[in-house]
Design brief:
Blueprint lengths: L15 E10 L5 E11 L3 E6 L5 H9 L6 E5 L5 E4 L11 H11 L4 H14 L15 H12 L6 E5 L7 H16 L3 E6 L6 E2 L2 E2 L2 E6 L2 E5 L3 H4 L4 E6 L21 E7 L2 E6 L4 H10 L3 E7 L12
Parallel strand pairs: 3-7, 3-10, 5-6, 6-7
Antiparallel strand pairs: 1-2, 1-4, 8-9, 10-11, 12-14, 12-15, 13-14
Helix pairs in contact: 2-3, 2-4, 5-7
Length: 310
Amino acid sequence: MTAATCGVRAGSLGFVLCLRGVSKRYGRGPWVLSGVDLDVAAGQIVAVAGDNGSGKSTLLRMLVGLSRPTTGEIAGRPAVVGYVPERFPPDERLSARSYLRHLGRVRGLHRAGAAARADELLDRLSLAGGVDTPLRLLSKGNAQKVALAQAMLVPPELLVLDEPWSGLDVAAHGELARMIEEVAAAGGAIMFTDHGGAINTFNGVAVSAGYRIAGGRLTGVVPSSAEIVVADVAVVLLESPPDLDEPDWPAGGLPFADGVLAATADDRRVTLRVAGGSVDQILLDALNKGWSVVGVRREDDRGDGRRAGR
């Protein structure tokens, strides 16, 4: 694909954001990124993995237009871009609600629409600490929820997220996954980074394309069968209080649910073997029903080598 095709809008194709030969360095320093070629099309969910300091954040800042490449070309950026930086400004005196309402007005929403959208997003992400709490007094996780909300005030055509799950609680993990899928279903493109290695499925989000950054180079990843599956996870739950009603699982004495591969029960303690991609939802369901989480561990840690999907 040549740069001339970037930004095309034709039927179901939508836009294509293209990076061609993009390199970046600051002053006369070393090259942070070198020779990056990348296409991000409407409806795609693209993940980029890499170690801290590998250039992931630099790539995203160029993608959204906050930084220019030293060499190369970026074309096809859509009009509505939502961006969550790695570090959200913590020293803001405005409350979460006021901040989002103000940004909504700046981005073209009328007063009532900005207020309604701000409240909707904060409710979906379950902001703790109060919507009228100044941003600078929120915890890291709750400040991250405000950062996510501001990126989605206006439905983005391009949503760029720098390690978006960092600091979020389990419930917000699942809600963010749903939001990402909604943006993609509406024809928006999503690109997110993570310092970990799992890039074809992350926190329940199935990605369209995965890349790694190392040594300033961006390389595509073709998942092998071993990479496609996620290691099983053992989740140990404790019924609390003792007279708690049984969770909404099918009868039979063992708590099976979607994603639960096996289960054992001992008095009030239950151990579930869970497919890795379902862990967040299982934990959320259990906590919502009043169970306590005793521990979570990868089944591989016990040396049995079992994998989800086998």
